[in-house]
Amino acid sequence: MLKRTFDILSSLAVLVVGAPAFVVIAVLIVFDSKGGVFFKQIRVGKDEKPFGLYKFRTMQTDAEAKGQITVGGRDPRITKVGYWLRKFKIDEFPQLINVLVGDMSIVGPRPEVPKYVALYTTKQKKVLSVKPGLTDFASLEYINENEILGKSDNPEETYINEIMPEKLDLNLKYIEQQNFLLDLKLIGKTVAKLFKG
Fold first, then answer.
1. What is the number of domains present in the chain?
2. Domain membership of residue 90 as a residue range
3. Is residue 43 a contact partner of residue 141, using CB atoms and an 8 Å limit?
4. How many CB atoms lie within 10 A of CB 134?
5. Are 175 and 130 in contact (CB under 8 A)?
């Protein structure tokens, strides 16, 4: 109950306070490239329930048809404005809408697309027993995941065989240790890492 109350109050506060900035971002996205302001992608949530995850659109409208993994900060599908939104993780803010409506939590394992969830082992599927979140141990460890994949000769293979299993191990670590104080620490570390970056 405490976690959900915190999720509602914190997401609502950021959405209200950040509204003027979000309007400016929306205008920049519209003028920068064709397409809508938001990008909605199906992700797998708690108890394997699919939901639409929201982000500010940072890519060309047909980008997902060319692959679901973003390769490096200069992926050619990324728009000019999108590059800066991604660099400072600003594209993630619309996910606070997902938090507000209850699809996600502020802290929890990052939600994955169905294509990769289908590859989970029985043990790894335990990450689907809790609400997905904006950040946790794995998010902090792989905050520069796109750059890592950008250096790989086969980004999808690297993601499936190396990064995804390690992230899931960290997700499981969070689930085993989760409590409200840990959530606050992870939020603080995430904010600090973003500002440092």
1. 1
2. 2-196
3. no
4. 24
5. yes
Q: What is the dihedral of CA 68, 73, 75, 77, to 10 degrees?
A: 80
Cα angle vertex 38, ends 47, 136, to 5°? 45
Query: pTM above 0.85?
Result: yes
Amino acid identity for residue 134 in this structure: L
> What stretches of 71-157 adopt beta strand conformation (E)?
105-107, 133-135
Name the token pair of 41: 């992608």
Phi, psi for residue 103 in degrees, rounded to 5:
-70, -30
> For residues 93 and 10, what is the distance between their CA atoms, to the nearest angstrom?
12
Please list the pLDDT of the chain residue by residue as tens digits (197 residues).
Answer: 899 999 999 999 999 999 999 999 999 999 999 989 999 999 999 999 999 999 999 998 776 666 656 665 567 889 999 999 988 899 999 999 999 999 999 999 999 999 999 999 999 999 999 999 999 999 999 988 888 888 888 989 999 999 999 999 999 999 999 999 999 999 999 999 888 76
